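Page 42, continued from yesterday. The earlier attempt failed because a stray header line got pasted into the input along with the sequence. Redoing it now with the clean sequence only.
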Amino acid sequence: MSDALVEIRNLSKHFHTPSGTVHALEDVSFDIPRGAIMGLVGESGSGKTTLGRTLLRLVDPSAGQVIFDGTDITALQAREMRDMRRRMQIIFQDPVSSLNPRLKVGDLIAEGLKAYGIGTKRDRRDRVAALLEEVGLQPDHMDRYAHAFSGGQRQRIGIARALALEPEFIVADESVSALDVSIQAQVLNLLLDLRDRRNLTMLFIAHDLSVVNYLCDQVAVMYLGRMMELGPVGAVHRHSGHPYTRALNSAIPLPDPRAVRNREILTGDIPSPLSPPSGCVFRTRCTMAVAQCATGTPAPRPVSPDHISYCKRLEVLDDH
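This time it went through. Structure tokens are written below.
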């Protein structure tokens, strides 16, 4: 039996627009083990948010499967999916716009409990008080409005709201990118603590590999809707198999200002998902591209145990 809570199989998502078809996701596959935090990293426009929302069936995939605890949720009807949603929640990027300014904090956190008819009004109030304490806030904060709190406190409110229905799986979509560095560290430590105490499984979406290296057990690197690399965070950080991952790693600031690092600077902009390059979609910005990179989609190649890279150069080396 698989130890994965979430299994993603050949997942694609295309959006049809007047200008053409946007290839937001293309043939993405990986597993998220139970109790693990999977990092999903890449530049803006790489498909990270689309993937997170597709996993939760907030958008329907164009092809492929999302298997949650053995159930293919892409095949569920609306009523069945509503029951499944109690087990999966999301923490949004912006702690300001994701909280209704007309509701008090207690009502914001209790929205899910009320929607599913869980508990009496008194029960829900007690539950909200416990959740506020769990995320580092005070029970009497439930009677205030969100605008009275700092950005870090608002994100804690968002986390409490995500926890209200006792989910097993949480998608955290750029959930610390809008916060100051010191507040980021506090929220990351809170997520780690919640994972351990609640045995949560998470997909943590970010564009900053240093944050992913701190928080996550494994990392999936995406570019223009496709997988570039997948593996344990330590292996991907120290022994990157894909030029794109190496460029992302080289952008991580070093703690010693005197240290010297060979930077791999990415030039140009990410291509339009309306007309992605043939072959390896990264080849138009890759300094190591060879002729074969323009033909055929790269197959996954092992870099080390449990660590794979989708790089045509590895195929060329294997062939020789």
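Notes: The mean pLDDT is 91.
Reminder to self: strip header lines before submitting.
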